[in-house]
Amino acid sequence: MLQISDRDRVRTLTLDRPEALNAFNEALYDATAQALLDAAADPAVAVVLLTGNGRGFSAGTDLLEMHRMATDPTFERGEHGFVGLVDALVDFPKPLVCAVNGVGLGIGTTILGFADLAFMASTARLKCPFTSLGVAPEAASSYLLPRLLGRQDAAWVLLSAEWISAQEALAMGLVWRVCEPADLVAEATRHATLLARRPISSLVAVKRAMTAPLRAGIDAARERENAAFAELMGGPANLEALAAFAEGREPDFTSLPPGW
């Protein structure tokens, strides 16, 4: 589910649910959050590199499990879950490098708001499908993406639920480098290894100085997003979107009650 390897003070985390395009179920949320917590506490780790196995970087939250979560009151959540993963990302004190090897949806895109360096394969695509799922943004993306991309590019990414190509992501500033697929991990690893040669104490100090001014904004955005998500999840638009996914069809929002 999650491969973990260490080399030259770089810990590589590889999301490994290729049959589901590395969609996050509760188990993968737990494993990734715990791996970030462990890397943060490990004095032998200087940098974390996050990538995916197979055709996907991450297809976001597992929608079949999300449907169960929305409709089954007995559903048991994981130890960390989505919130715990975002907590770990917000608090992660060392450089985080992302190598987007394939499709990235939802958290597979919004996680880039926490990346210190993001590399993307030329064939990869990104999408924030929130409006097509009848829900709200997540992971402080409503705050981080406008800062990273500018208001209008961020508005398009968050409102449209349309695919973003690698070249569009590069032009927007969502990623730092676009690579040929065969070169992606090697190039991301090369940069991560260069950073890992620096003193960990200095890397942590630089990242803390850069991110500390953002913490209040991130915390406030998460509160707003969580409130909106809680209001919308399980509502008519969300249930129609999840039912459509489970049935293999396009959602039809035209017959929803007024205001939805």
UniProtKB/TrEMBL annotation:
SUPFAM superfamilies assigned to the protein according to its UniProt record, in alphabetical order: ClpP/crotonase
UniProt superkingdom: Bacteria
Primary location class: other
GO MF entries: delta(3)-delta(2)-enoyl-CoA isomerase activity
Localization (cell): Peroxisome
Keyword terms of this UniProt record: Isomerase, Peroxisome
Any Pfam family: ECH_1
Record CDD domains: crotonase-like (cd06558)
Cross-referenced InterPro entries: ClpP/crotonase-like_dom_sf, ECH/Chromodomain_protein, Enoyl-CoA_hydra/iso
Protein's name in the database: Enoyl-CoA hydratase/carnithine racemase
